[in-house]
Amino acid sequence: MRKPKKILIVGGGTAGWMAANMLVARWGDVQVSLLESSDIGIVGVGEGSTPHLKLFFDSIGVKESEWMPRCNATYKNGIYFSEWSHVPGYNSYFHPFPAQVDELTVPSFFHNIKARMQGIEAPAHPDNYFLESYLTRHNLGPLAAESFPFSVLYGYHFDSGLLGEFLAERAVAKGLHRINGTVTEVLLDEDGAVGSLRLDDDSLVEADFFVDCSGARSLLLQDALKVSFKSYRENLFNDSAVVIPTTIPDVVTPATRSTALSNGWAWQIPLTNRYGNGYVFSSDYIMPDRAEQELREHLGLLDSDVEARHLRMSIGRVDKHWAKNCLAVGLSQGFIEPLEATALALCYETIKHFLDHFEKGQFSNQYEKAFNQVINNKFEGIRDYIVAHYKANQRTDTQYWRDNAANTQLPDRLKAILYLWTHSKNFAEEMEAQKLGVSYQAKSWACLLAGYGIFPALQDAPAKAQPDVEQGMDEITDFIRRCGLNFQNHNQLLAQL
Ligand SMILES: Cc1cc2nc3c(=O)[nH]c(=O)nc-3n(C[C@H](O)[C@H](O)[C@H](O)COP(=O)(O)OP(=O)(O)OC[C@H]3O[C@@H](n4cnc5c(N)ncnc54)[C@H](O)[C@@H]3O)c2cc1C
């Protein structure tokens, strides 16, 4: 029960460097080292974030003007989902990050959803109700004028290789010891905890505590400590990705676009110097070379010889993220496919909660179990929301989309949410009452389900809108437009950085 004197992080991908910066910032009196192998590369994709990346940079005291230009970063107001639904009028919607002013317009959104659920014609498409949808349509960044008294959450797009370099430089400047070498053996002590690591030059590296950021290999946690892995394959079919960069136009949109293709979906992520593009697919339904061809067609690159990169993904999570004297962060603890760009959010949450739980237990394993439950719940909360995209898809053109829609292997919480959507009198209130909004609030769920047009058929006889409508659509549109006057053009914001 004493604070570790030496902590060794194994792995210098984004997860390793995030852990390094947070550890150095929190425990300046501990010797933190990071071991990476120049013979084994990093994944190096992963260019979109949630608002957690801002929390991370705030927690280590780094300003946007310091890191964003170095990483070709742009702002992100949310994600467009296109072609996931073929319901007329619902073939695209925008999932915005939360803004405080949404609280003033969301009641009308829910009101109109309720009407639409009763077969009454009502404007229930999410794009009309959220500030950040408006900002994105008008190419405005998410930083409000100082006089605007409401908070707006936002994420970023960035070059993950450059982000790693920036974070590495910063951690080393703060006193982190950087080691190059390849682990060939993990030696356990008599209690079965990690004792030391043997490197390829036969040297031994010791520490009191280890952070496994070795990527999907999970050298310490899964390989050496034999912590088991829970696959999400029955709910999430995708296991592969192919990645191709393209040039970017002058106007840089502050949003990711996710477009459904024949057997998965393609991301388009705007950086200051290029688009990152990739096709996430299931190799059970389409061969990688055919997927690459389809992505090239989608990007208009059939005649181009720009190289594509293929990756495999293992979807799921470990049963315990912290076991004995080892914490796993990043791909070593699991991965949920990148549809909502949540991987770095989970890295941040894992490190933050670990630091809190370890300190609270005075550097013992007292809160190991509680911590693991917290992180498992976060993984499952995100998984449920991502599975919902596939279950709710409104396409019938390929076996892949039909099988996803027909999938009955659903997590219980997701089943409960889908049931509420079609059966409850008040979706938002019921979500709240049953505490189902883990990781995503009721308004995000409503965006997804309304965005795909999951509504009953309209009644034959046109009915009037319910009498208790709080605001008319014109009023809402004008309110959001006036809020929008407090925001600046995205390109200008980037130029100011
Ligand atoms: C297709 C795809 C798209 C993604 N999109 C997103 C996204 O939009 N947003 C997001 O947040 N995340 C995304 N991710 C996830 C993101 O890429 C990872 O979470 C992130 O890169 C962290 O990876 P990592 O640091 O855990 O592992 P890695 O990058 O694999 O790093 C592993 C490190 O361990 C070291 N190592 C391995 N073995 C040894 C050894 N034997 N000895 C010494 N060192 C060793 C390596 O040298 C390396 O430094 C995506 C992932 C994929 C596959």
TrEMBL record:
GO terms for molecular function: oxidoreductase activity. Pfam families: Trp_halogenase. It is an enzyme of class 1 (oxidoreductase). Keywords: Oxidoreductase. InterPro entries: FAD/NAD-bd_sf (IPR036188), Flavin-dep_Halogenase_NPB (IPR050816), Flavin_halogenase (IPR006905), Trp_halogen (IPR033856). Coiled coil: none annotated. The keyword Signal does not apply. Gene3D superfamilies: FAD/NAD(P)-binding domain. It comes from the Bacteria. Its EC number is 1.14.19.-. This is Tryptophan halogenase family protein.
